[in-house]
Amino acid sequence: MSGDDGSRGARVAPAVAAGALFAVIAATVSAAEFGGPVAGFPTDASVVHNIGYALFNLGEYEVASIPAEGFLAAFLIVAVALDVAVDGAVYLAKREEGDTVVSALGQAFTDGGRDGGDRR
Question: Which residues contact residue 49 at a Cβ distance below 8 angstroms, ignoring those fewer than 6 apart?
Fold first, then answer.
């Protein structure tokens, strides 16, 4: 029966940690003061164009009508996260058989390493 107590303790510790994390986040959100609504952007402003201007640091030439550096940071963070996700998917799609790496598509686009040039 002592084996059951060890596994129960191993399951309780992560649950307590998750509960404590939830309590900290709930206390932080409930104590936070959110400002009132902002006026928004001008109707003729394009967020996409302003992100491009911020990307190439053209704001000093007064072509940007809204400050878009915050959007640029979010854009770059999402781009890096998506790149990591795609790289991870490609890495996980590879599998090894023996000592060689086999593509996720198998032999769909190859002749399977057969001798000769004919594809039958």
Answer: 64
